[in-house]
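Instructor's aside before we start: the two examples that follow are unrelated to each other. I chose them only because their records fit on one page, so don't look for a connection. First example below.
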Amino acid sequence: MAQSAVPSAGAPPQAQPTPAPLRVPIREVLPWAVFAVVLAAVLIYFVGAEQGATSLFGGTWVHEFTHDGRHLLGFPCH
């Protein structure tokens, strides 16, 4: 005999299984987080400060390459 989708009035409700919380191990995430922070710092340096007295590379090619991004992010350059 098929079971009804609606429990009868006298039947006890069945317990729903609770999902186990997802555990993210810090040791696996930490190297990627450090890499992301270092990469972001290098990108912000090149977009925001790679010109003038703090320039690591001679010439203006880095400045010209990042010129539009510099204005988009609000860094002055002229």
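Example two begins here.
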Amino acid sequence: MRIVYLALAIWGAIHPMVYFLRWFRENGFDLSGMVEAWHANAASSGLVWDLTIAAIALTLWIIAETAARRQWRNLIAIPATFCIGVSCGLPLYLFLRSGSQDGPIR
């Protein structure tokens, strides 16, 4: 499964970035315009909030498990989540976590 997590993290970094880069090419590097586009209608606003809540929950999980396991390198999944997206941060964290020799927390 470790390789699957890594593949999903890479895919989750590249695939969404293709769309973001296309948007920046068409509209310039306008972050406020991008955020405005994310809230263009109720469906896209709902998706933004869904991903925001998921990113916060993932961050709290990463912090809690990192503190318990003392696997500080796993914290890299937090900036990956907020700078790239949950589609990269979650599988990246699962990849890093699966490499731990500690096993599950009991």
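The mean pLDDT is 91.
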